Amino acid sequence: MADDLDGLDPDCARVVREFQTQGLPEWHTLSVPSARRLEDDLFSAGDGPEMAAVRDFAIDGPAGDELPLRAYRPEGPPPGDDESDTTIPNRPTVVFSHGGGWTLGTLDSADDICRELAARTGALVISVDYRLAPEHPFPAALDDAYRATEWVAANADTLGGGGPLAVAGTSAGAGLAAAVALRAAVEGGPDVAVQALCYPMLDRDDSPASYTEHGDGPLLTAADIAWFWEQYLRSPVDAHNPFAAPLRADDSLLAGAPPAVVATAGVDPLRDEGRDYADRLEGAAVPVERVHEPDLSHGFCSLTGDVPAADRAMDDLCGALAARLE
Q: Which of 135, 168, 297, 305 is the most exposed place for a label (fewest CB within 10 A)?
């Protein structure tokens, strides 16, 4: 990965340097299979908080095959419930889509983030193992994330949920969460109470200033982002579709979106599109709470165990999300 550590929190910079000493290449320089193996090696070995229960299962997917999901039920009673029975089906539920440029990522690579979300919000978290590009380009990942959200809305109580519903994601997964929220509003689908978007990837446009300032990384470069979009989209026409690039949605579409929590990192080429999407939502009269971390990098939700500032940022994010789910 390229060296762009100016303005980075010292602990975050230390972790980035550790990645660099391992000879971590930029994603776009690898083949898709090699990038997937590397991503699994880097992010599938986490632990995260203990859960009352973790369950893998599958539902019927939109393509007629199985769609794998993983449910995380945290310890303790649901938020606001004084009962000791932790299986009471009134927890809020969060449907989570992992990052990885729609090309990388598994249930395991998102395991630590999902455990943190569940533990810190008290919500039931359902992680979606959506189909990956380029084998399955847009709209396959969106169709899977939307199908999972529909299923969870109808069946969460059987898993110990049943309270308010949120969609959430990191990076490209945050773009999927934003698109699910828009699609649900357009199609009269599940009642989404809040969308939580962590350093979201929302538009193919590389003109924002953050691309110039931080296009060399760390952990994600402008060239990586361009490569991920190439894998995801069927053709350049898809880049104008608001369900692929939610920042392209018009005001009338945005006006139907649920309240949002938008987390951005200052040292991140995606910083400005997250900020701009929050601006667009607010301009459409959608309530938005921002969590901005000026001295953290892209991917900080995966660094909570090593970077105290990332741990505090996760607390802020989860606190804002939990407040919307009460």
A: 135
* Contact call for residues 130 and 66 (beta carbons, < 8 A): no
Interhelix angle for 308-324 vs 111-121, to 10°? 60
8 A C-beta contact, residue 173 and residue 202: no
Nearest to 125 by CA among 154, 88, 165, 155: 165
Tell me the catalytic residues: 171, 268, 298
Q: Cα separations (Å) of 294 from 187, 210, 300? A: 36, 12, 11
Look at residue 157 and tell me whether its pLDDT is greater than 80.
yes
191 CA to centre of own chain: 19
Tell me how far apart the alpha carbons of residues 17 and 23 are, in angstroms, rounded to a whole number. Answer: 10
Q: Which residues, in sequence order, are CB contacts of 57 under 8 Å at separation 6+? A: 68, 69, 70, 71
What predicted TM-score, i.e. pTM, was given to this entire model? 0.95
Q: What span, in angstroms and rounded, lies between the C-alpha atoms of 43 and 191?
A: 32
Q: Which amino acid is at 191?
A: D
pLDDT band at residue 289 under the 50/70/90 scheme: very high
Q: Are 5 and 296 in contact (CB under 8 A)?
A: no
Spatial distance between the Cα atoms of 5 and 25, rounded to a whole number of angstroms: 16
| Residue with the two structure tokens 């199985």 | 66
What three-state secondary structure class fits 318? helix
Helix (H) or strand (E) holding 200: none
Query: What confidence tens digit (pLDDT) does each residue in 7-55 have?
Result: 899 999 999 998 888 778 999 999 999 999 998 888 876 689 999 999 9
Q: How far apart are CA 205 and CA 290, in angstroms?
A: 22
* Inter-CA distances, 293 with 156, 193, 300, Å: 33, 24, 9
What span, in angstroms and rounded, lies between the C-alpha atoms of 6 and 16? 12
